[in-house]
Amino acid sequence: MSKHPRITLVTGGARSGKSALAESIAADHEGGRIYIATAEAWDDEMAQRIGLHRDRRGSDGWRTIEEPHNLAGALARTDGQGVRLVDCLTLWLSNVMAEGQPGPHVRALCRALDAQKSPVVVVTNELGLGIVPENALARRFRDEHGWMNQAVAGIADEVWMAVSGLPLRLKPQRGTP
Amino acid sequence: MSKHPRITLVTGGARSGKSALAESIAADHEGGRIYIATAEAWDDEMAQRIGLHRDRRGSDGWRTIEEPHNLAGALARTDGQGVRLVDCLTLWLSNVMAEGQPGPHVRALCRALDAQKSPVVVVTNELGLGIVPENALARRFRDEHGWMNQAVAGIADEVWMAVSGLPLRLKPQRGTP
Amino acid sequence: MSKHPRITLVTGGARSGKSALAESIAADHEGGRIYIATAEAWDDEMAQRIGLHRDRRGSDGWRTIEEPHNLAGALARTDGQGVRLVDCLTLWLSNVMAEGQPGPHVRALCRALDAQKSPVVVVTNELGLGIVPENALARRFRDEHGWMNQAVAGIADEVWMAVSGLPLRLKPQRGTP
User: Fold this and answer.
1) What keywords is this UniProt entry annotated with (chains A, B, C) (predicted)?
2) Nearest Cβ partner of A131 from B24, B45, B138?
């Protein structure tokens, strides 16, 4: 494994420190830094969350792109300009599923990731570790989200899980079966 | 630890790749392969999930037994016929709790696992890592399920957790206290 | 890392065996043992859970202090009297948030932990790994809880996560980025 992997996935629960971990991994790369935000600030709570992330990241050296839907396109047109930090796949999937079947979009994202020459750090959530949701839509989102995570983790060079702010390495790993 | 442990537990969240991981572990064993399904196809959504699993597994070399309740009996009568893949304990516990106290059934399952001569790969879920459910029945299920997982993990030779499709080894492990 | 770290954090899901793990870590220390319970037995279900924990711990060598709110004070006045087991931060945060902003209380707790001369084993929960709660209060609790966990894990010498009754070491760890 090289010191600077090309595709890194950072997963974890809510408030587990995954964005901060992803930022520290991205900051380890040389050259330009591009933050690809998938969030849409559709209410006050979300606007506040976005503000918190922006404040922590600071403005030095980061350029921000808002891309709630066409992640594959945003990756293609920024390749060669430095490390990209995508935060996060969960909101992106939620945006994409609001408009139809997510499968083709997830496959397009994976092809785009696979084609990148410059590094990408991608943030996602683990959200299938609670009790089965009573809401059918939540169950479907949980399914699609889990399949998306598997697909992206499958092509990533490194995968980390943040737990209580601490990094746990999932890939590459010693002792896999 | 031998290359082929006798009792393997695979846990993980929803859509974390735990069934595929369990299948790859089971496929590593020589001889016959028996799939013990605990699911009852009581609605379309469940029928579809069962179909997905069956399609991935394929038909080559697998014999399927449906046993929603008497897992201990199914293990006893298939011992000596090859590796058994039990998928999954969560649905089994749900079936068992629909009829009364689960404690005696969990203890009978553990005794049956302990008595096996042929290998068994058991799939379960981690479902206690979300917010406390508002529903008292869900809280009770979460409690009983956690105790079941602890009991089975305690007698298993190997325990794996699937996260975003990646295997994380929990037992045996270096660095335990 | 010394054999007996000063501050140990044990996290995990519901019924994951985290209290039993914390007790076994605390029992490894010499001298007096003080159990600091943050639970208030406000209903039958909670009274039963408290009773289960007390029965397992036994009475030999353990002194129990009930402190639902002022954890920093309880740690300060018991320092020098042996190992303290705090069970758990989740209920404490819930008690604290019922009365106002948790931030100052979490910071006071972290300062108190940092100042301890005798060892402390602290139990918390991972609860951000399920689907986003529909309830705004639950989302806020999840956020504050995650930030608390990150703060305490940051100053802890050792952090463990219990999964299906098995310990997974998060800190210190090999292979962190």
Assistant:
1) ATP-binding, Cobalamin biosynthesis, GTP-binding, Kinase, Nucleotide-binding, Nucleotidyltransferase, Transferase
2) B138
Inter-axis angle of helices B136-155 and B89-97, nearest 10: 130
- Enter the ipTM: 0.91
Asked if C164's CB is within 8 angstroms of B124's CB, the reply is yes
Q: Hey, is the C-beta of C173 within 8 angstroms of any chain A C-beta?
A: yes
Query: Interior CA angle at B6 toward B1 and B11, to 5°?
Result: 90
CATH homologous superfamily of A7-171? P-loop containing nucleotide triphosphate hydrolases (3.40.50.300)
Task: Look at B165 and A154 and tell me if their CB atoms are within 8 Å.
Answer: yes
C136 touches chain B (CB under 8 A): no
Note the Cα C166 to chain centre separation in Å: 17
- Give the C-alpha distances (Å, rounded to integers) separating B88 from A90, B59, B139, C17, C168: 27, 19, 20, 21, 23
In tens, the pLDDT along A39-71 reads: 876 667 667 766 776 777 666 678 999 999 999
pLDDT per position as a tens digit, C122-173: 999 999 999 999 999 999 999 999 999 999 999 999 999 999 999 999 999 7
Distance CA C86, CA B103 (A): 29
Tokens of A108: 């397009």
Q: For B168, list phi and psi in degrees, rounded to 5.
A: -120, 120
Q: How many CB atoms lie within 10 A of CB A89?
A: 23
Higher-confidence position of C138 and B51: C138
Distance separating alpha carbons of residues B98 and C153, to the nearest angstrom: 40
Active site annotation includes A53: yes
Of B120, B109, B93, B88, the residue nearest B13 (C-alpha) = B88
